[in-house]
Each structure stands twice: as C-alpha cells, then as structure tokens.
Design a protein that fits this description.
CATH superfamily of the largest domain: P-loop containing nucleotide triphosphate hydrolases
Mean pLDDT: 89
Low-confidence stretches: none
Number of strands: 10
CATH architecture of the largest domain: 3-Layer(aba) Sandwich
Order of helices and strands: HEEEHEEHEHHHHEHEHEEHH
Number of helices: 11
Shape: globular
Strand order of the largest sheet: 6-7-8-3-9-10
CATH class of the largest domain: Alpha Beta
Number of domains: 2
Radius of gyration: 19 Å
Strand content: 15-25%
Bound molecules: adenosine-5'-diphosphate, magnesium ion
Length: 278
C-alpha cells in the first residue's frame, strides 16, 4: 500500500466536509460537433464524491472530447456540466483546475528537461496564493508557501513510489514512470476530481498493474473522485464503481460493471464475444 503522509490525510479531511449538492459532477445532455462531425451526441452522467467512474468506448467515440468539455477547453453547443450544482459553462480551463478538476493526458504532457520534483511543483502553481508579484512584496508569505509546496510534492513522490527518480529529467525516465509523474503532477493540484485519459495505454502488464494499484489508492486513501477513460476493458471492469459505455459519441449503457457487461447493446457494439467467454 502506498505511503500516505499526515499532510495528504489532512487534505483529504478538508475535502470531506458537508455537501449540499446532488452530485460532485453532473454532465447533462452534452452535444459537441466539429464541422458536422458529432463528437459527443447527447451524453449524460454524474460522478459522486470519491467515486471511480469509468468511460469506455472505441477510438473516436468522444471520450477525450468529454474531458475537454468538462474542463472547458471545448465549448459544447448544447447541454450543461455542473460542478457541485453550479454550471461550469463560460469558465476558463485554469478556473476549473482551481475549482478542483485536474487531468492527465492521453499523450504525456510534461516538461522533459525538468526534474520530477520541478514537474510536480508546476502542478502546485494552481494553488499558489501569493503569486509572483505578491511574492516579491510579501516575501514571508511566498516563502512559507514555497516550503509547504515542496512538502506536498515530496509526500506525493513517496505516495507514488518515485523517490529514486526525483532529481532526474523526466524525459530520461521509462515510459511507465513518466505516466506516474504525470499522475503526480495532477495530484499536486490538490483535486477533488481527477480525469485520467487512458493512463495505461502503451504500458506492459507490470506497469499496468502498478498504475491500477495507484489509481485505487488515490480513491481509497486520498478520497479523490476519478473519471477513468480507458480502452482496456479488463482494467475498467476490475476497478470501476460504475461505467459509461459510449460509441460514436452516443451513450449506450451506464451501470455497475456486471450490468454493463451483460447489456446486449454493449455486447453488440463494442465487446463482441470477448466477455461471453470471460
Ligand atoms: N479539436 C478537434 N477538431 C476536430 N475534430 C475533433 C477535435 N477533437 C476531437 N475531434 C473529433 O471528435 C471525435 C471524437 O474524438 P475523441 O474525443 O478524441 O475520441 P476518443 O478520445 O474516444 O478516441 C473524432 O471524430 C475526432 O476526430
Ligand atoms: Mg481519446
């Protein structure tokens, strides 16, 4: 089990205050088209606090576009996305990060020449109160923040078991470790919801199992809700609380893994005979 410091547990306690909203995230009938190509065609789902929700579907079925819509990089033509009951519509992507939505990317998006520690510190920027200008005026506050940020980054490094690489430029690290660093940077943003876009794509079996363990630890130990976009059916069936299956932008089933597995539409559209023998 991953190492969880007192500092990370305190952050968890802060998140689990009383809630007066129906769902942490509520995606309502979202439609998004690019020049007539329907990337998302009427998708609705919700995610509750601390839930591990998975979205699966073939390539091109709109999964990444859903993430880009949640964090407001794409602006859906129809529908709404609520965060703790309030619409995210019109916000800038950095604002959604500030609200507590962090993500990782299908293709690694780290600074390859910077070390693991430096990459993780970039994730802290979204949480810095003092800011650069204020930092030069209120030096004391900025200094305290810097110390706190470094502490949090070290806790995350312990949690993800990447101590041995902390001083290495990220670009030199094995692929599976780079993916873990990217996960660490998202955690450094102190999210309440983590959007993971195909976190095990291109990984070997061992790397996949490690990543699955860290994803479950993030949910169990840190209490962070997760949306996991995956291709790897086995992983999703093993670890997700609930699953949404999409195909050509359309939702074709939502439910518990066992329900989704039995759904005739899913078997027809995506799973084929794979699961009948599983
Ligand atoms: N920025 C964009 N411009 C034009 N088409 C896009 C853009 N982003 C996604 N699409 C299209 O939307 C559809 C869904 O893509 P995507 O969300 O990447 O699917 P997935 O992540 O499930 O593979 C595809 O047809 C893709 O080509
Ligand atoms: Mg994608």
């Amino acid at each position: 089990m991953a190492v969880v410091s007192g500092r990370l547990l305190k952050r968890r306690a802060k998140r689990s205050g009383s809630t007066d909203y129906d769902h942490l995230l509520d995606v309502k009938d979202v439609h998004l088209a690019f020049k007539g190509v329907k990337a998302i065609d009427g998708v609705s789902f919700h995610v509750d606090d601390g839930e591990l929700f998975a979205i699966i579907g073939p390539n091109g079925s709109g999964k990444t576009s859903l993430f880009n819509s949640i964090n407001q990089v794409y602006k859906p033509q129809k529908g709404d996305i609520l965060w703790k009951g309030d619409s995210l519509s019109g916000l800038k992507p950095n604002k959604t990060a500030e609200l507590g939505i962090a993500r990782t990317f299908q293709n690694i998006a780290l600074y390859p020449h910077m070390t693991v520690v430096e990459n993780l510190l970039t994730g802290r920027h979204v949480r810095m109160e003092a800011g650069w200008l204020a930092g030069s005026i209120w030096w004391g506050k900025a200094k305290a923040e810097e110390i706190e940020n470094r502490g949090i980054v070290e806790d995350i490094i312990d949690f993800l078991e990447i101590e041995q690489w902390r001083k290495y430029p990220v670009g030199l690290l094995p692929y599976g470790i780079q993916k873990r660093v990217e996960l660490g940077r998202a955690l450094a943003m102190d999210p309440e919801l983590l959007l993971l876009d195909e976190p095990v794509a291109g990984m070997n079996l061992e790397e996949t199992e490690d990543m699955a363990r860290f994803i479950l630890d993030i949910q169990d130990e840190l209490g962070i809700a997760i949306i996991l976009v995956e291709h790897d059916m086995g992983l999703v069936m093993d670890i997700a609380d609930r699953i949404l299956v999409v195909d050509f932008g359309k939702p074709i089933a939502t439910g518990l893994p066992a329900e989704v597995q039995r759904n005739p539409n899913v078997i027809k559209a995506y799973l084929g005979e794979e699961l009948e023998t599983a």
